[in-house]
């Protein structure tokens, strides 16, 4: 069992995140990177822009991460034993590109309430200050949702370029992870990340998010997988797991689910971004 220790739970409650958590070896992380890059090679564009969502639906290897017992043990420590997988995102920053993530709160445009959910950020490559690791505004989750500007700015890896004002960046905490480690963060903690100034890609595979079965989607439709426990609420449609890499039916399912996500992310907006 890999449940969180009491000091880790206290860190999450006090700061809005817990990190680092060891999940798998660097060798396995390398294998996962190879599969991601194989998909990119065989199907150029499949993982770009809005295609970065729900890659676990077309890859048994990525699907396996979402059901990893170590991850689920840690998640259970925070949201309880009945756990649904609500989606995944690949955050890939190539070297010397303009990609960054503005400071934001996940809960702002995702429509999931109550906030009995958590995001798992799994490092497929090392993630550090040089290559643009996440930075957290410690304790900001205690203030509920903040006002966000919608900037739609170039290089911003968020849907609307949503940005929280007046973040004390000099006080934020860098979440430095080795490949195979992860962090967990609260729906309302303010976080962001800078440019990749290294000579290699920075790849994060993000389960966004693990939700309790009591959580509803208020802005659209989410399909889910049952990761652990039982679902006595049945608020969401259940979908299956992939058996083959890049299966035709699974590719169609991924596109359908990503179209649904676009409806959620851009609800009420007069324009759409690249993601």
Brief overview:
This protein is α+β, with helices and mostly antiparallel strands. It has helices at 6-15, 26-42, 60-66, 69-79, 248-265; strands at residues 17-22, 83-85, 88-93, 101-104, 112-113, 117-123, 134-136, 148-150, 162-164, 173-174, 181-185, 191-193, 202-212, 216-217, 223-228, 237-238.
Q: What's the SSE blueprint?
A:
Elements: H1 6-15, E1 17-22, H2 26-42, H3 60-66, H4 69-79, E2 83-85, E3 88-93, E4 101-104, E5 112-113, E6 117-123, E7 134-136, E8 148-150, E9 162-164, E10 173-174, E11 181-185, E12 191-193, E13 202-212, E14 216-217, E15 223-228, E16 237-238, H5 248-265
Global morphology: globular
Name of the CATH superfamily: q2cbj1_9rhob like domain
Biggest beta-sheet profile: 8 strands, mixed
Average pLDDT across residues? Answer: 96
- Helix and strand element order: HEHHHEEEEEEEEEEEEEEEH
Oligomer: single chain
The helicity comes to 10-25%
* Overall CATH class: Mainly Beta
In the CATH classification, which architecture applies?
Sandwich
Could you tell me the CATH topology label.
Jelly Rolls
Count of discrete domains = 1
State which percent range the strand residues make up: 15-25%
Q: Uncertain segments of ≥5 residues (pLDDT<50)?
A: none
**Span from first to last CA?**
37 Å
């Amino acid at each position: 069992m890999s449940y969180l220790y009491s000091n880790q739970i206290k860190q999450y409650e006090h700061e809005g995140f817990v990190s680092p958590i060891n999940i798998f070896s660097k060798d396995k992380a390398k294998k996962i990177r190879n599969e991601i890059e194989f998909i990119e090679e065989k199907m150029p564009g499949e993982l770009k822009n809005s295609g970065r969502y729900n890659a676990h639906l077309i890859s048994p290897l990525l699907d396996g991460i979402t059901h990893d017992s170590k991850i689920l043990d840690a998640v259970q420590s925070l949201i309880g034993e009945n756990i649904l997988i609500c989606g995944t995102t690949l955050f890939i920053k190539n070297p010397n590109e303009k990609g960054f993530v503005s400071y934001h709160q996940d809960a702002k445009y995702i429509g999931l309430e109550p906030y009995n959910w958590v995001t798992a950020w799994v490092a497929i490559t090392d993630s550090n200050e040089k290559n643009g690791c996440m930075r957290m505004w410690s304790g900001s989750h205690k203030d509920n949702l903040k006002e966000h500007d919608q900037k739609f700015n170039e290089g911003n890896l968020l849907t609307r370029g949503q940005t929280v004002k007046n973040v004390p960046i000099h006080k934020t905490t860098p979440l430095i992870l080795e490949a195979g480690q992860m962090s967990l963060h609260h729906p309302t903690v303010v976080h962001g990340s800078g440019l990749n100034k290294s000579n290699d890609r920075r790849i994060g595979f993000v389960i966004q998010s693990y939700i309790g079965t009591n959580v509803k989607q208020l802005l659209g439709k989410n399909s889910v997988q049952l990761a652990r426990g039982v679902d006595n609420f049945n608020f969401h449609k259940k979908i299956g797991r992939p058996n083959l890499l890049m299966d035709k039916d699974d590719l169609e399912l991924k596109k359908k689910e990503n179209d649904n996500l676009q409806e959620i992310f851009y609800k009420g907006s007069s324009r759409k971004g690249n993601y």
